[in-house]
Design a protein that fits this description.
Elements (H helix, E strand, L loop, with lengths): L1 E2 L10 H8 L3 E8 L2 E7 L5 E8 L4 E6 L9 E7 L2 E7 L5 E5 L17 H8 L6 H5 L10 H11 L12 H20 L50 E5 L2 E5 L9
Antiparallel strand pairs: 1-6, 2-3, 3-4, 4-8, 5-7, 6-7, 9-10
Helix pairs in contact: 4-5
This protein binds a DNA duplex (12 and 12 nucleotides) through loops.
Length: about 260
DNA sequence: GCCCCCCTGTAG
DNA sequence: CTACAGGGGGGC
């Protein structure tokens, strides 16, 4: 293993990680919340924890064959026979490291078949937190970031500042549906990461979400980063508010505070 | 809850 | 040139 960017290694030092991985073998690939997990086996084939990889905003995993070009901004390279598995990351917000076991304390996976309205209601609990802040809390629901929280609430026609415990059953139902459809569509469009055990697909793990929202690629969002533009639904000007120090975008016509 | 840090590219 | 965006972790 080669570490090109020690700052991307967490939770241990790059030296510790390098020693830990020496001679190991990669096992099954999985995902939990926004974390990619690759099981490790030691020299004798026994389980030996996992590589835990968070792509941040711009991280990628690529399998590079002999003679193929190395991705730009490489952070870590694993040598797998003739091939190399490269974790690259333009902005450096991603993380790569070893953990003894999968992450704990995470909320339900929204794309699991078992993610029902009841699951969502239970996860939200009786919190008074604004629904947008709650959605972004991985201990509540897994894998929803700032951009998609805005997109989800816009589609569900729910104001981001609504206290989560005040949502009606009807709204929760729309919310669940929107979470699943918005995330599924983003994955299908190749905009966000999901997991495939097939290394041939690993370069698809992530594409730019639009230079972090702005620029041409970022124009694909219905509401995110469209302050002042007409709502695609009703034409009213999109508003921008701050919640927990993060920008939220909403349509004051389609997403009402009081229903 | 807040703030700051990590880091880089892009908008202004 | 500066401000700012992203997810997460840390500190108060």
């Amino acid at each position: 293993m080669q570490v090109h960017r020690p700052g991307s290694i967490r939770p241990q030092s790059s030296e510790d990680l390098t020693l830990r991985c020496r001679g190991g073998r990669l096992g099954p690939v999985s995902r939990r919340s926004k974390t990619l997990l690759i099981a490790l086996a030691d020299r004798s084939g026994g389980p030996d924890g996992l590589l835990q990889i968070h792509l941040g905003m711009t991280g990628r995993m690529s399998v590079v064959g002999p003679g193929q070009a190395t991705p730009v901004h490489p952070a870590v390279t694993l040598h797998l026979g003739d091939d190399r598995l490269v974790f690259s990351d333009v902005r450096g917000l991603g993380r790569f490291g070893w953990v003894p076991e999968p992450p704990q304390g995470l909320g339900p996976e929204p794309l699991d078949p078992g993610f029902t309205v009841e699951t969502l209601a239970l996860a939200l609990g009786k919190s008074r937190q604004p629904i947008k802040v709650r959605l972004m809390d991985p201990s509540c629901v897994s894998g929803i970031g700032n951009i998609y929280a805005a997109e989800i609430l816009f589609r569900a026609r729910i104001h981001p500042a609504r206290p989560s415990r005040d949502l009606s059953t009807r709204e929760l139902s729309r919310l669940r549906e929107s979470i699943r459809s918005v995330l599924s569509e983003a994955i299908d469009a190749g905009l966000v990461a999901t997991t495939s055990a097939d290394p041939a697909e690993w370069t698809l793990f992530h594409r730019e979400v639009g230079g972090t929202a702005r620029g041409e690629a970022g124009r694909g969002f219905a509401i995110y980063d469209r302050e002042g533009e007409p709502c695609p639904g009703c034409g009213r000007a999109v508003q921008r508010i701050r919640q927990a120090s993060r920008s939220t975008f909403l349509c004051p016509g389609c997403q009402r505070l009081e229903s």
